[in-house]
Amino acid sequence: MRKFSRKLVLFLQALVCSFISFAQTGDKVEILGAKNFEFLKSAGRNVSKLIGDVQLKQKRTFMYCDSALIFETENLVEAFEHVRINHNDSVTITGDYLLYDGNSKKAFIKGHVTLVDKNMTLTTEQLDYDLNNQFGYYAHGGTILSKENKLTSMVGYYFARKNEFFFKSDVVLTNPEYNMTSDTLLYNTFTKTSYFFGPTTIISKTDRIFCENGWYNTQSDQSQFSKNAVIFTDRKMLKADSLFYDRKNQLGKAFRRIHVYDSVQNVHLYGNTGISNGKTKITFVNGNSYALKIMDGKDSLFLSADTLLVAEKTKKQKQMMKAYRHVKIFKSDMQALCDSLVYITDDSTMRMYHSPILWSGLNQMFSDTICFFINNNRLDSFDLLSDAMIISKERGNHFNQIKGRYMKGSLDSSQLRQIRVFGNGQSIFYAKEDSLHYTGVNVIDCSVMDFMFLKGQLDKATFITSPDATLYPPNEKKPEELRLKGFKWFENRRPGKPKY
Questions:
Q1: Residue 98: is its pLDDT beyond 90?
Q2: For the segment 419-431, what is each residue's pLDDT rounded down to a tens digit?
Q3: Whose CB among 153, 158, 217, 438 lies 3.0–4.6 Å from 167's, allowing a Cys bridge?
Q4: Structural domain range at position 304
Q5: Interacting residues of 3 by C-beta distance below 8 A, sequence separation 6+
Q6: Residue that finishes a domain, picked among 70, 105, 135
């Protein structure tokens, strides 16, 4: 009994001394309770051994565990089993083992580690946490759950005051709407915004996105992508130096070096700025904009304009492409100019408006409006609507000419095959004895006329309704006198092969 009393007195003395020491510094770890207590002296170090429902405190930080060792001189705590830290009633950390430095307020926790704050839950096997600066770090893999978002990575840094995580290596963010993989990612748990640095891929049911720099807000579903940024949908590809995407409104905006590919229409669009609306199924591109359409596997149709529009087929609209202002078309065997153009995929028609000009081989055609038809990706036929005229150059200042109110033409391998003139028909053709000598000039007025061509040159003419014809000797009239009203030769405006 006397021996037990002596031990109890020693224990109480040690405990009092410990509390006095803690109280003197104000930063010492306090012992709030334990089922068993033992005071040890080892190599000149004062060690308190606590067992059973251990409760510790340092200012507003509370620690709980099954057992602990407290090194008084170093102000260190080593805690074991069912470890729990509560800091400022805002952060709770649990694990199997804790090493805590009371001076620096830095904790090392390992074994089934969980960190919980008001915005997320982190699980990992090993965590370093600075309670003073509210900074955490893990390097052996971790998982964060934040409402509907789940994020995993090999390395992670947590800045509690900023509500930010910085992740590195094998980063995966999973959301009910999409999955994101990245090399490096910064995530704000309060704003629900991810910032990515390095190769990043975002995959959803409706699209697939790749970039090497950008941000994504999981609440607003808005994002900004740059550096090799590209968006794939079920039928389109959108690529640019910088992309803005609003998934909820299905709205994409692109800036600088834009490339849009429509796999259904087999059309490539290029430009400096663009807008793609998934709800209206319409895409605009402007600023040095041009389009490429693969026609027959060997040849392409090049089209440039100030603004290009591509519309997908819906219940309310046809599938089409439109071009506005300064429109140029180049194909190896056909070129054109106009101020606006509409290409309707459903019926394979292309309409050119506002002083259009069409070149096919040696022939130049123009009218108020030109409409031509595409069959099996080849130009098949055309209509020249109102004040139509076709001109081909013979030699020097000599020109063959056909004029009428309205014309219909057909092509063979994109070369003129047949022309029919309806109303107010006029023609001037140089009759040849051979390739070098003319026998005369035919000037004919006829309401309805047919012309057949061979390899793009006139082969046969048929004058159907009341022709009035005059054959002039070769040199009787000056070339300038042999011009139909409205004659214009635009060869200097003919588009050449584009450089792109």
A1: yes
A2: 999 988 999 988 8
A3: 153
A4: 245-329
A5: none
A6: 135
pLDDT confidence tier of residue 122, bands split at 50, 70 and 90 = very high
Residue 211 and residue 250 in one domain: no
User: Cβ-count burial of 292 within 10 angstroms (0-12 exposed, 13-18 middle, 19+ buried)?
Assistant: middle
Token pair for 386: 């109102």
Dist. CA 154–CA 31, nearest whole Å: 36
**Residue 485: which residues within 8 A CB-CB, separation 6 or more?**
403
**What confidence tier does 124 reach under pLDDT thresholds 50, 70, 90?**
very high
User: Model pTM?
Assistant: 0.71
Q: Are residues 365 and 490 in the same domain?
A: yes
44-82 residue pLDDT tens = 778 989 999 999 999 889 999 999 999 988 899 999 999
The identity of residue 193, as a single letter, is T
- Which residue from 379, 411, 400, 414 is spatially nearest to 461, judged by alpha carbons? 400
**3 state SS of 8:** helix
Beta bridge partners of 129: 107, 136
Give the span between the Cα atoms of 385 and 23, in whole angstroms. Answer: 100
- Where a domain ends, among 101, 135, 169? 135
State the Cα–Cα distance between residues 62 and 373, nearest whole angstrom: 81
Question: What CATH number is attached to the domain comprising 161?
Answer: 2.60.450.10
Secondary element (H or E) of residue 171: strand 164-175
- Same domain, yes or no, for 107 and 172? no
Give, as one character, the DSSP assignment of residue 361: T
| Residue 222 and residue 96 share a domain | no
Q: How far apart are CA 214 and CA 201, in angstroms?
A: 11
Q: Span 151-167, mean pLDDT?
A: 88
pLDDT (average), residues 212-220:
88
Q: Which residues contact 435 (CB under 8 A, 6 or more apart)?
A: none
User: Is there a contact between 349 and 365 (Cβ–Cβ < 8 Å)?
Assistant: no
